Amino acid sequence: MNEGKKCLGCGVVLQDQNILQEGYTTSLENDICQRCFRMKNYGEYQVVTKSNEEYLKILESVGKTKDLVLYVTDLLNLDRDIKKIRTMIPNKMILVLNKKDILPKSVKTEKLIQYLQDQNISFDEIIVISANKNYNIDYLLKRIKHYQTSKNVYVVGHTNAGKSSLINKLIQNYSDSTQQLTMSYLPSTTLNTVHIAINDHLNLIDTPGLVEVGSILNYLDPDMVKKISPKKEIKPITYQLRKNQSIVIEDLVRIDYVEGERNSFTVFVSNNLKVKRFLNSTNRSDLKDLNKITYSVKYDEDLVIHGLGFIKIVNKGVIDVYIDQKVETFLRKSLI
Question: What was the pLDDT predicted at 183?
Answer without folding.
Answer: 44
